[in-house]
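Researcher: I'm preparing a figure for a lab meeting and need a structural model of a single chain. I don't have an experimental structure, so a prediction will have to do for now. The sequence is pasted below. Please return the structure as tokens so I can convert it later.
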Amino acid sequence: MSLIVKKKRNKIRRFALLGLVLMLMLVSACAPSLSPEPTEPTTPQPTTRPTELPENGDDLGVFRGLPGARDERMNVAVLDADGLNFNPFSWGEGRFPVDPCGHYQPIYETVVRFLPEDLEYHPVLVSNIVKTDDSIQLALNRERQWHDGFFVTGQDIIFSVNAHIALGTATGRILAELVTEISMPNDQLLILSIDNSSVNVANRVLDALSRSLIVPRHHWESLLTHSTAAEDFDAIVLPLVGSGPWQLIQRDEFALSFSRFPIDSTGKASYFTLLRYHNHQLVQEALEHDDLDLVLCAPFCGADLTQKNLTSGEKLAGIALNPKANEWLASRPFRQLLGLSADPAHTGPLLMPNSSPLEPSDLLTIPSVMTLLDRERLSEALLPKDEATVQALLEEAGLQANGTTGLLERDNVPLKTFELIYPEGSVPIEEALGVFLRSAREQGIPISLRRVTVDRWRQYEREGNYELIYQESFTGESPVNLIDRLLGIPTLSLEKDELLLRLGEANRLQEKIKGMEQLASWLIKEQLFIPLAGGAIEVGWWRSTRFIADDLACVLSAQAEFHLGE
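Model: Understood. Here is the structure written out token by token.
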């Protein structure tokens, strides 16, 4: 199951947002500049003329009906189209999939993307990235095109960054704080001047750019003229735009297709077609008749289909402990005792059934990054899970087991019942936490579950207002995301801040690896996070005799913050 806690949306809000992103034919209009004020280019902008019409379509990059022959077209079923969020300036569940590899001409896209394999940010809408002490220089890729055939320009990036800032999106607030000026000295270079008094500022800006969707200015400028927040779009009556007849607003609900960029003869699909389905049985029949290559189930993978699972992106899930919550959790031996209650071999399959179980030492970040670290040395730092270790920790914490109740107590005072907060809407989370609770109870530690709304859960996590709380990493967690997540876990010493600062200042790969190994060793010692599961996120079911799924891990890259399945 994919990492999801799906929030039900008002139908009007959903339809308005869906239509907003499908604005493909709206003419450009003038709009006031948004802060920070970009410097106007000193040379003419690149042309925005559309490319020639594709041979099999009657629109530019987006086609009516089903373009091309079946052997040229990858057919993708969307089971829960109403749950998809088409607003590029929103943040949360169900974000419409984008293509950070640049295989297909996008509706919207990111400037860069982060790769866990080398812990670096790589170009998407640009061709090169250069970091200096006080700037990030982006060489523009003049070959990239939007879905309608217009070329991507530096003005699209400037406009979109300013829009995120003006609308106060999650990444826009970061960019507003760290970017002091955006300039375009010529039509091939974009310069972001950054506040070099901030720690790790270049990577923080790049990380924000990796999660900020860029939109074509010529479609969005008039819409943003009088908008001050993403929610302002809810009340806008949006015209039908683009091609279909997949339209989730008014009339037909069939298909939306994108052309490969550039169309070539390498055996890849020339077209990527989304087909809306309401009935799971019809999806099964379409698969059996070879009418579909992929079923896109995120953010809802509830169908009983026996197909090959397709995954994209990784997460780490577990329980954060707050040592400032009470005297019990302030005790390191007690936290270590609680940590021995975890068993990722049992909780992992419940949360991420298509991933290998975590090792207890894989508690820092996502598995692909953990493979870069010295896992053998980290495993040696773990406490053995045996009776002698349990007794030693009990003595150190001053605890004894009550012979009648089996619960732990100190000086005949029973241990309190600890509260574990988690987000509503996810059966797998409840099941995994239930396994943990029963294991902790066998250790004599009583824990109760408290289910809250997703917004309240995030608030408690952000404010450190909890004893125990279910926690997840970002999809494809970067060192920047890791630092932010660990900063949110309260501690009783300054050692964590020193380690996080050291990691933030690391530039070379080996420096980052060393910094993360030191953090992992510290986290094992302090036991402030208990891992439950980690691995790849399921996004769909794959069954194709024509194509390979190589492109799709990128095309379906999770841009939303899904939470473990529903």
